Amino acid sequence: MKMKMPYLYTLLLYSCAFILFLEWLYPVQQIGDVTNMTVFMLYTVFCFFISILGVKWWLSMPLKGFGLLLIIDSLFMAVPMLSRRWFEQLWLEVGFNLNALVAQQWYELTPLFRSVLFLLLIWMLSYLLHYWFIVRTRVLVFILLTFVYISLLDTFTVYEADGAIIRTFVVSFVALGMSNLFKEMDRESVRFSLVKKAPVWVIPLVGVVLFSTLVGYAAPKFDPQWPDPVPFIQSAAKNTGGLGNGSGIQKVGYGEDDSQLGGSFVQDYTPVFEAAAKDEHYWRVETKDVYTGKGWEKSAEPEYELISGERFYMQMVSSEVETEEFEATVDFNEDSAMEKLVYPYGVSQVESEQDFALRADFDHGEARTIRDTEPVNLDQYTVTYDSPSFAIDELREVKGAQAVEERYTQLPDSLPERVGELAEEITEADGNWYDKARSIESYFGRSGFTYQINNVPVPGEDQDYVDQFLFDSQAGYCDNYSTSMVVMLRSLDIPARWAKGFTSGEVIENGDTTDDYDRYEVTNANAHSWVEVLFPGIGWVSFEPTQGFSNLTDFYTNMDETEQDDTLDSPEAAPAQGQQEEVSEEEDAAAADATSDNDSGNIEMNWWYVLIGTAVTAVLVWIIYRTRFRWRTAYLFRKLQKRKDARTFQDAFHYLLALLNHKGLVKDPDQTLREYAKRVDFRYGTTEMHQLTSHYERILYKNEMNNQETVQLSQSWKNLMKQIMA
Amino acid sequence: MMQETAIFNEKIERVLENINKVMIGKEEEAMLSLVALLAQGHVLLEDVPGVGKTMLVRTLAKSLDCDFRRIQFTPDLLPADVTGVSIYNPKELEFEFRSGPIQGNIVLADEINRTSPKTQSALLEGMEEKNVTVDGRTIPLKQPFFVMATQNPIEYEGTYPLPEAQLDRFILKMKLGYPSPGQEMQMLEATSKTHPIEAISAVMDRDELLAVQEEVKDVYIDRNVQQYIINLVTGTRENSAIYLGVSSRGSIALMKAAKAYAYIYGRDYVLPDDVKYLAPFILAHRIILNTEAKYDGLTSDSVVEKIVQNTHVPIRKEFNS
User: Fold this and answer.
1) What is the mean pLDDT of residues B224-232?
2) CA-CA-CA-CA torsion sign (B256, B262, B268, B270)
3) What integer is the mean pLDDT of A346-358?
4) Is A128 in the same domain as A256?
5) How confident is the model at residue A561 (pLDDT cuts 50, 70, 90)?
6) What 3-state DSSP class applies to A303?
7) Are residues A80 and A164 in the same domain?
8) Alpha-carbon distance A284 to B212, whole Å?
9) Range with the largest mean pLDDT of A223-237, A248-262, A644-658
10) CB count, 10 Å around CB of A372?
11) Among A148, A324, A336, A533, which residue carries the largest CB count within 10 Å?
12) What is the per-residue pLDDT for A192?
């Protein structure tokens, strides 16, 4: 017998349903192309309000229907409502859309019709939720669905459910607690009037929910075990490696437009190319030289030079600089589309089996691969390059003002003065350009800057990108660090530019001997930016200010140098130069970083399979779980026929009890088997339970075992099990 | 609340039919009296006068071809008035024993709480020992021997309520209660000319009854049902509302009664159902509630009912090996 819940509690419970339903609507706004979400929300409120009033259906139906028409009218109809033309137009719309539906031309559906469908859905759900929450007080299924929905959206779309999951948690647990209380009171026939006078039950419920929420919120949580699949899905769908649409969250990768830097992004481990190379080195693509205060642009329209031979020599250092010749092979991933050449420092030659030519812009270090004036993507090519090594003592000789191209010391007028002041302060003790560059390069690590890709701000209208990073956020990724270093160097009149490309990537295959080439995989997550400084008479030397990354440039000192520089002696030690002390502190940052995260490459390859595998396993487990009673029944039946003994019969009988219990026909502990059997037979209209019970009673209370009868009854047992399961 | 699947033992069924002819609407009480009789126990009837106590006992006696005696307990009744007395016979020059009313097969001890404890104990000794001692001589009582004692719960003045130790001697306590208006109408119709007791005849003789009493002893009771009895009895000892729990005599009584009950229903083994059904009749008069419980409005019956509800029925057999 269902008791009437007091109105206040009904209202509370239904409000929970309403809030949970809103959680379904928020993401629709964000991920779908729904523009008039406010209207839909209002209609939801309206429908839920009508439902909670509990008016008769002949009143609530027209009310909700009228609301629907009102919305349609205000959104789509130009003619006066309920006029003749209004109806005609509506009729035309309906006819058109019904035809489209029948023809399965989904894209033909008009916004009006889609809105009608959506509103109808809201209407239906308001009714359904009223039924689930208030009439049946069964809330768990909807709550579980809500959690699954939110988690899936958070995982597979750009929707960020950080807040939603907390709201859902609180609301759903309050709803669960309340519905459980109602059911319990219903079962125990407790009158609500008693509860009304003493609403003490609310205190522990709210207390527990709030406490667990706070604990859950504050407690340390595991980082995601898989890389975020969203960029993977997007790039799989779009086949592109470009930056996102600048809506706040971007995806790392090689992009063209750097005029607006800043903002968070998500790591994308889609492979771009694989490379076979002797040593780790950066892959350069291009440089930019104009800092706008918000990002980077190129100084002028690039002047392209057509190079049709294999020779592609990028003059970056003077001929006096020591170099060593190497070769590297680049294999592009089928899906990646790079029209620009990716090359190591000191590139001198590019060979490919494919027919191609280069359009090179030597000013910006950019080369496009073309065939007959059309851009072309090379699948594979081999580059020969002369890897430069720089003598530190020679670099140190560069000091004081030098005559250099103005564009490498360009700075916007809007740059706050404190940036320059900071640069002065950092380099106070240094007498030459090299030391100054080194000081700035290591400044970030010394001063507690953190590497992060989330919550990185975009500079506001009046803010400078570098200024914001240096003095405000002090957290960011490569663009922040490299841009800041270039700007600070330029404020000291040291010529510098901003270089873009890829880091060396992950080693996926080690060469057998030290002389062999290693194979690297470079993904979108390896897209990077760094700093190049022009040392007159020597050339462009690259620096790496980003936290967690090491400078791969080869610096060496002559043997007669001071002891202090001995650490720089061997080329192997050089990459760690200037970073060594920070390395341990930066481990966390480095772990999040593309170059040092060894596992992510493999996981990224496998997680799709893992997901499918898990899903299949889950479905199988679920099926087995759902049919577990059938399996067990078949098993016990066979066992009964074979063994025929009292013990097996006891197992079978108790399994029957367990099944009945599962079906909600619970045997009270003080109930005798006979009393229970009567209830069961009455419920299912059977006589088998009585027969089985009588037999079991004789086993149990008479210590008698009639094997013949056991076999006869095993069929009755099976029949009864089937009937109960049906 | 009798078991509905009433497949009675044939002999017993005839007795019950007989009683039901006379006592309209008292099937359960008739059956409980038989339980006590077959378990070789005695019944304490607590009821107002005039609801048919005497008629019940007389019908029982007549159906079983037993000697019926009645003792009306009064304050001035002496033990000798119950047990019998030795009188000097001047002719024979010796004392001669004149048996008292206790020397019957079925004895109605009416308003037992009206007499002095001394006289009460004379009856109770007979009930327990199945013999009486008169002038140093032990005289065995007739077999079968069955006492149905009544107690008036309304009048307390000038009564000697039976002490709990004595109440223990009765295997079960029950009430007759008023018949329903419909039953009373039937009763009036049945008794308008002749009393129906005149119409019935014996359906079993004394020897058969003694044999049945022996058969009842052979009814099988499994260890797990015995455990159930023990759990129930232990429940009374551990209950916070109870000042004095059920003694071991109580557990024995419950077991014997359960066997008799199973026999009546034509079974040769005891079910927990039997025990569960009988527990209130057998345990309620053996416990003493403490004062708080009484003030809380609890009664012995309600407390026993609660204990039965809280005791798990055994539904699993422990197999060795």
Assistant:
1) 94
2) negative
3) 83
4) no
5) very low
6) coil
7) yes
8) 110
9) A644-658
10) 8
11) A533
12) 60
pLDDT at A578: 42
A-B contacts (CB, under 8 Å): 54
- The whole-number average pLDDT for the span B208-221 is 93
Q: Using CB atoms, which residue from A647, A673, A704 is nearest to B319? A: A647
In this structure, the answer to whether residues A96 and A17 fall within a common structural domain is yes
| B residues 244..303 contacting A (CB < 8 A) | 268-273, 276
Q: Same structural domain for residues A275 and A382? A: yes
Q: Where in chain B do CATH 1.10.8.80 domains reside?
A: 218-321
In the DSSP assignment, the letter for residue A374 is E
> How far apart are alpha carbons A673 and A668 in whole angstroms?
10
Average pLDDT over residues B104-120: 90
Same domain, A399 and A535: yes
Domain membership flag for residue A574: yes
Residue B112 sits at the chain A interface (C-beta within 8 Å): no
Give the Cα separation of A141 and A117 in Å (integer): 24
The range of the structural domain enclosing residue A263 comes to 249-601
Same domain, residue pair A556 and A455: yes
Q: What is the mean pLDDT of chain A?
A: 79
Confirm or reject contact between B313 and chain A (CB < 8 A).
Answer: yes
Q: Who has greater pLDDT, A370 or B146?
A: B146
Q: Is residue A609 part of a domain?
A: no
Select, from the ranges A70-74, A136-140, A160-164, B63-67, the one with the highest average predicted confidence (pLDDT): B63-67
Confidence bin at B220 (pLDDT 50/70/90): very high
A1 has a pLDDT exceeding 50: no
Number of domains in chain A: 3
Query: Which residues of chain B make contact with A650, given a CB cutoff of 8 A?
Result: 316-317, 319
CATH architecture of B218-321: Orthogonal Bundle (1.10)
What is the helix (H) or strand (E) element at residue A59, kind and residue range? helix A57-76
Residue A601 pLDDT level (bands cut at 50, 70, 90) = very low
Within 8 A of B315 by CB-CB distance, chain A residues are 654, 657, 673, 700
Q: Would A316 be classed as within a structural domain?
A: yes
Interface test with B, best of A672, A691, A706 (most B CBs within 10 A): A672
Within 8 A of A657 by CB-CB distance, chain B residues are 315
Residues 6+ apart with CB under 8 A from A679: A665
Do A654 and A570 share a structural domain?
A: no
A99 and A32 share one domain: yes
- The answer to whether residue A712 is domain-embedded is yes
- In sequence order, the 6+-apart residues with CB closer than 8 A to the CB of A78 are none
Give A644 to chain B, closest Cα distance, Å: 15
pLDDT at A565: 44
Task: Give me the residue from A669, A697, A700 closest to B312, CB to CB.
Answer: A669
Residue A530 is which amino acid?
W
**What ipTM does the predicted assembly reach?**
0.87
Measured in angstroms, the CA of B299 and the nearest CA of chain A are apart by 21
Residue A153, Cα to own-chain centre: how many angstroms? 9
Strand partners, A388: A323
A199: confidence class by pLDDT, cuts 50, 70, 90: low
Contact assignment for A702 to B308 by CB distance below 8 Å? no
Read off the pLDDT band of B27 (50, 70, 90). confident
- Burial of A220 from C-beta contacts in 10 A (0-12 / 13-18 / 19+): exposed
Contacts of B6 in chain A (CB under 8 A): none
CA distance A438 to A471: 20
Q: Which of A646, A669, A674 is nearest residue B273 as measured by Cβ atoms?
A: A674
Instruction: Look at strands A264-266 and A249-251 and give their pairing.
Output: parallel
B316: nearest CA partner in chain A? A700
CA distance B144 to chain A (A): 29
Residue A603 reports pLDDT greater than 60: no
Residue ranges matching CATH 3.40.50.300 in chain B: 1-217
CA-to-CA distance for B170 and A9, rounded, in angstroms? 55
> What does the pLDDT average to over A532-540?
86
Contacts A673 to B, Cβ<8 Å: 272, 313, 315
Whether domain B1-217 has CATH 3.10.310.10: no
In B, minimum Cα distance to A670 occurs at B312
pLDDT of residue A583: 41
